[in-house]
Known about the structure:
By secondary structure, the chain is an alpha/beta fold. The protein folds into two domains: about 5-95, no CATH class; about 105-335, TIM Barrel (Alpha-Beta Barrel). About 25% of the residues lie in helices and about 20% in strands. Strands 4-5-6-10-11-12-13-14-15 form a nine-stranded mixed beta sheet. A three-stranded antiparallel beta sheet has the order 2-1-3. Strands 7-9-8 form a three-stranded antiparallel beta sheet, with no helix packed on it.
Amino acid sequence: MARQAQKLxxxxxxxxxxxxxxxxxxxxxxxKGPRTITxxxxxxxxxxxxxxxxxxxxxxxxxxxxxxxVTQGALLHARDASPEPDAGAAADAGGAQAMPPTAASDxxxxxxxxxxxxxxxSGALDLTPAADVYVTDLFDTRxxxxxxxxxxxxxxxxYYSAGSFxxxxxxxxxxxxxxxxxxxxDYPDERWLDIRSxxxxxxxxxxxxxxxxxxxDGVLAGSLGAYxxxxxxxxxxADQLDFDQFLAREARALGLTPGLSGDFALAAQLVAAHDWxxxxxxxxxxECERLRPFLDRDKAxxxxxxxxxxxELCPRARALGIMAARKNxxxxxxxxxxx
Length: 339
């Protein structure tokens, strides 16, 4: 086919076993189903086309899909995308290519004010709550569950503890003992991490790649207040600020939208690096004003309360521009959100 007569578009192929990026072409006339498969990015005129073999394989794949009239669902899910192509695909293409928007770059794919949040990090994942954004556990959530959320039009965010050592995690053996501090007051089975450690930061990079590879749209880092705790690590506010910015920067580089939780004493310094925020009990503690830097920038703020009545909590939350919900202290599936 003549390269000049066809537009190349980037399509995400997604399955439970992984992802690959393919270059596809417009379906010819006479094909069953729509002539054009509309995707989110276009390779503009003048960009280098894929090598013949890769282009032929991609074209045949799209023509088959078009002949079936398939234009949506998990196979053609392309709302989010990795910011970097697969190394082999890039080599076949012979150079840089336009990439689809990601949750970190496209406002339409980001968490926005007014959205509803379902936050669940324990128990069997419940995919039925009528929420726009789900925050679920990075390790426990399966790729097919992330796909199910996408297919139902939800954004999927991965929670992970960035500042504490959890001995039950799959990567627990990777942490050097020299990077472990004292126990957390509220979670005695966890220990603070030395966030200055290159080993800790390398492990966090791998966790962020795990989130990307599972298909998550973004990440929410937890346990970011070691500098204000008796951690036994002599961490400073500057150490915490540097680590929090590092996490946001690494997430964004992978196409993930970063959210901030817990460390709102530094909100003014961190708001530029984060797209949304989740507070835990800021209404009960009368500390929601700490989130003012996010609210003033029209960024989504959620608050999860483990006590109190919605009849009292919701009017206060609405007055502040915060989306609030009641949760069990275990943050399981149960939830009651403000209307």
